[in-house]
Design brief:
By secondary structure, the chain is of the alpha+beta class. The chain is about 30% helix and about 25% strand. It is built from five helices and nine strands; from the N terminus they run H-E-H-E-H-H-E-E-E-E-E-E-E-H.
């Protein structure tokens, strides 16, 4: 495997403020450069499905491992959730916009969230994920996670699973895997992402087009 499943199993679970864990070097450093190279370069903000851009072989393999039965069992055991038969939704982010990072707990259709960061060493203040104690104070955090390449964040989605980050604009790559309540809501969310990606591409096309003259 490319990812280090043993490192996930051996990382202690933090129960407060909600069940979560941070696994450093879940993707070992020697495998990171290939993953960054193979990550799609769709130059729009927001989340998009893997089908929306060309993905290289190492990223395809990582996604397959994140969706594997072994990973499912490890996540379920760690978070105390029965994930048997729960469908996964995989989305990617290539860029961070100024409005990203606002405090939120994740949507109710999700049971658990995994974020695998694929960035170079993170040197700036913005864009560092914060595990928050409350819904209205970004400075009231239990942990701060730089999105360094290879770092995995996993947490149980519940009403108080607040998280966010300070503003950042620029490349901030990650793979997100969500275990969903059921297939219907998973397919509905996938359809929403497809539509959103098409709209963004059209907007970018027209934004870059030369202005008409009378």
């Amino acid at each position: 495997m490319l990812v280090d499943l043993d490192a996930y199993r051996q990382t202690p679970l933090n129960e407060k403020p909600y069940p979560h864990l941070v696994v450093r070097d879940f993707l070992p450093p020697e495998k990171l450069s290939a993953a960054i190279r193979d990550f799609p370069t769709l130059d729009v903000g927001g989340l998009f499905l893997p089908e929306a851009a060309e993905i290289g072989p190492s990223v395809k393999e990582i996604i397959a491992e994140l969706e594997s039965e072994a990973m499912r069992q490890a996540v379920g055991e760690k978070l105390g959730i029965d994930l048997s038969g729960r469908p996964t939704l995989v989305t990617l982010r290539n860029r961070c916009n100024a409005r990203d990072g606002r405090i939120h707990p994740d949507s109710k259709f999700k049971l658990a969230t995994m974020l695998l960061y694929l960035n170079e060493p993170w040197a700036v203040d913005g864009g560092r994920l914060r595990i928050l104690n409350s819904s209205d104070d970004l400075e009231d955090y239990a942990a701060e996670v730089p999105p360094n390449g290879g770092t995995l964040v996993c947490f149980k989605v519940q009403p108080n699973s607040w998280h966010g980050h300070k503003p950042f604009v620029g490349p901030r790559r990650y793979i997100m895997v969500n275990y969903c309540q059921d297939q219907a809501v998973r397919d509905s969310e996938a359809a929403r992402h497809r539509l959103s990606t098409r709209v963004k591409k059209v907007r970018r096309l027209f934004a870059g087009a030369p202005a008409e003259t009378a």
